[in-house]
Design a protein that fits this description.
The complex is a heterodimer of chains A (about 240) and B (about 240). In chain A, about 40% of the residues lie in helices and about 25% in strands. Chain A has helices at about 50-60, 90-100, 105-120, 135-145, 165-180, 190-195, 215-220, 225-240; strands at about 10-20, 25-35, 40-45, 65-70, 75-80, 150-155, 185, 200-205, 210-215. Chain B has helices spanning about 1-15, 20-55, 60-70, 75-85, 100-135, 140-150, 155-170, 170-180, 190-200, 200-230. Chain B starts with a helix and ends in a 10-residue tail after the last helix. The chains are: A alpha/beta (about 240), B mainly alpha (about 240).
C-alpha cells in the first residue's frame, strides 16, 4: 500500500544550527528541512550527533542558529530507545500522556483504547507497564506518541535493544504511521531498516550533516568519502 | 532480677487488661505523631518535589542545610517551638503551649526535613531516568517531579513510615512543648521517662513494649514495601 500523496510543506526548518554539550561540539552548522510526510532516517557512527539532532528538532536542547518550528497547534512527540514507563498500568500511562498533551478528559478513554488497539496491546491495558517485555514497552511508547496525534514523531533508535521479532513489530507500526501521513524522523544504526522504511536518509559525520539524499539514491552508490566507507562497512556487517 | 520479672508480668497484665491510662497514653501518642506526619507529608513532599527541580542561587546551600536538619536534635526543636509559642513569643497569642497542638507542631518541625530531604533525593534520581521523556510529553518541571512522587509512591510510603517512627520515638520536643501533663499531653515516651524516674517500672515497661511493637510494625511494613519495590508486579495479574 503506497502512502497518500501529500502536499510538500515544510514542518521544521533548521539553519546553521549548532549544539555544544559541555566541552563537546555535538552538532555544527546543521541545515535541514523536514517536510510533511517525510520519513527521515538519521544514520552515522556513534557520537556523530544523531540523538543531538533529534533533541534539537524536538526542542529539547539549547542551540545557536535558527530553528523555525512547527506552526501553532502542531503536535510533536518523541520515542526513546529505552522508553520510561511510570509505575502505573498500561492504560494509565496512556492517560497521563494524554493529560500532559492537553487532551480533554472526555476524549482520553477513547483515544487511549484506540491507541492500545493500534499497537496490539489492548489485552494488556490493566497490566503494570514496567513488567511488559522490551518490545511491548516500545509498542506502548509508540501508542503513547500516536495517541496525541503528532504531526511529527521523533524516534531515537527505537529498535536498538529489541529482538528480531519485536523489531519487526515496531517496524510494521512505523510503516503504518507513515502510510497514515505522519512525518517521522528516526535515528538508527540499522541501514537495512533505513532502507526499508525511510524516504530520505541523512548521514551525520562528527557533528555535521554530511549527506541528505532520497533513500534510493543514498543506497545506490551516490555517496562518497566517509559516507561511502560508512555505508560499505555497515552493509557488510548488516548483510552477514 | 525478681523485681524486673515481676514488673514485666505486671506490664503484660496492664497490656492484657487494656489499662485505661495505658490506652489513653498510647492513643494520644499515635494521634499526635500521625497528625504531625500528615502535616509534614503535605508540606515536605511538595517541598521535596520542588527542590528536585528548582534551580536558584543558594540551592546547594539549602540542600546542605536540609540534609543537616536530618539530624536535628529533638530538644532543639522543642526549645525553638517553645520560644515561638510561649506567652512572650511571636505565636504566644495562640495560647497552645502545653497542648497536643503544640506537640503536633513540634513533631511536624522535627520530621519535615526528613520527608523533604528523602523525597527530594528519590524524585531527583527518578527524574534522571525519565525526566526528559516526561518533559518531551509536555510536563513542566514541577509536574514531572510530582509525577515521580506517584511513580515512587512506595518509596513515599517508606519515607512517611520512617518519619512516623522518628516522631513517635522522640521525647525531647514533646516533653518541652507538651509539659507531660497527665491525661492531656502525656505520651508514651514522656510517660516512660517519668515513670522510670518515679520507680514505677510496670507502666514504663508496658509503654516500652507497646512502643517497641509500634516500631516493629513499622519495620515490618517497610520490609514488605521494600519487597514489593523489588518485585514491581506485587500482585498477580488476572488472566484475560
Amino acid at each position: 500500500m503506497s502512502p497518500p500523496a501529500l502536499p510538500r510543506e515544510p514542518l521544521l526548518r533548521l539553519r546553521d544550527a549548532s549544539v555544544r554539550l559541555g566541552q563537546v561540539q555535538a552538532l555544527r552548522g546543521a541545515t535541514l528541512d523536514v517536510y510533511r510526510g517525510d520519513f527521515i532516517a538519521l544514520v552515522g557512527a556513534n557520537g556523530s550527533g544523531k540523538t543531538t539532532l533529534l533533541r534539537l528538532l524536538h526542542g529539547q536542547v539549547a542551540f545557536t542558529g535558527t530553528r523555525e518550528g512547527l506552526a501553532a497547534g502542531a503536535v510533536q512527540a518523541m520515542v526513546y530507545q529505552r522508553p520510561f514507563m511510570l509505575r502505573l498500568s498500561v492504560a494509565n500511562n496512556l492517560h497521563i500522556a494524554l493529560w500532559l498533551a492537553g487532551v480533554p478528559r472526555t476524549e482520553r478513554a477513547a483515544r487511549a483504547a484506540a491507541a492500545l488497539q493500534r499497537v496490539g496491546l489492548a489485552a494488556l491495558s490493566d497490566r503494570p507497564a514496567r513488567v511488559l517485555s522490551g518490545g511491548e514497552q516500545q509498542r506502548l511508547a509508540l501508542a503513547r506518541a500516536w495517541a496525541v496525534r503528532p504531526d511529527v514523531l521523533f524516534l531515537d533508535e527505537p529498535t536498538a535493544s529489541l529482538d528480531p521479532g519485536a523489531k519487526r513489530e515496531v517496524e510494521a507500526l512505523l510503516e503504518g504511521f507513515r502510510c497514515d501521513g505522519m512525518t517521522l524522523v528516526m535515528s538508527t544504526h540499522n541501514l537495512g531498516q533505513a532502507k526499508r522504511l525511510a524516504t530520505r536518509v541523512v548521514y551525520l559525520d562528527r557533528g555535521t550533516l554530511a549527506v541528505d539524499l532520497p533513500t534510493a539514491r543514498f543506497f545506490a552508490d551516490h555517496v562518497d568519502g566517509r559516507a561511502e566507507r560508512f555505508l560499505k562497512g555497515e552493509l557488510t556487517w548488516s548483510l552477514e | 532480677m525478681n523485681d524486673v520479672a515481676q514488673s514485666l508480668r505486671t506490664a503484660l497484665d496492664l497490656i492484657g487488661s487494656a489499662d485505661t491510662v495505658l490506652v489513653r497514653t498510647v492513643a494520644l501518642s499515635l494521634g499526635v505523631s500521625a497528625s504531625a506526619c500528615a502535616l509534614a507529608a503535605a508540606l515536605g513532599l511538595l517541598a521535596g518535589a520542588w527542590l528536585a527541580v528548582a534551580r536558584f542561587p543558594g540551592h546547594r546551600v539549602l540542600l546542605l542545610l536540609l540534609n543537616t536538619l536530618l539530624a536535628l536534635p529533638s530538644v532543639v526543636v522543642g526549645l525553638t517551638v517553645y520560644l515561638l509559642l510561649s506567652r512572650s513569643g511571636p505565636l504566644g497569642a495562640m495560647g497552645i503551649l502545653f497542648t497536643p497542638a503544640a506537640m503536633v507542631i513540634a513533631q511536624t518541625v522535627l520530621v519535615l526535613p526528613v520527608i523533604a530531604a528523602l523525597s527530594r533525593q528519590f524524585v531527583a534520581d527518578s527524574l534522571r531516568d525519565g525526566g526528559d521523556q516526561l518533559r518531551s510529553m509536555g510536563a513542566g518541571p514541577l509536574t514531572s517531579a510530582l509525577l515521580m512522587l506517584l511513580h515512587d509512591r512506595w518509596a513515599v510510603v517508606t519515607v512517611l513510615l520512617t518519619a512516623f517512627g522518628r516522631a513517635i520515638a522522640e521525647v525531647g520536643a514533646v516533653m518541652i512543648v507538651g509539659g507531660n501533663i497527665a491525661g492531656v499531653t502525656r505520651v508514651m515516651t514522656t510517660s516512660i521517662a517519668l515513670e522510670t524516674s518515679k520507680g514505677d517500672l510496670p507502666l514504663a515497661l508496658a509503654l516500652g513494649l507497646v512502643l517497641l511493637a509500634v516500631v516493629a510494625l513499622l519495620n515490618t511494613a517497610m520490609a514488605l514495601i521494600a519487597a514489593r519495590l523489588r518485585d514491581p508486579v506485587g500482585v498477580p495479574v488476572p488472566a484475560r
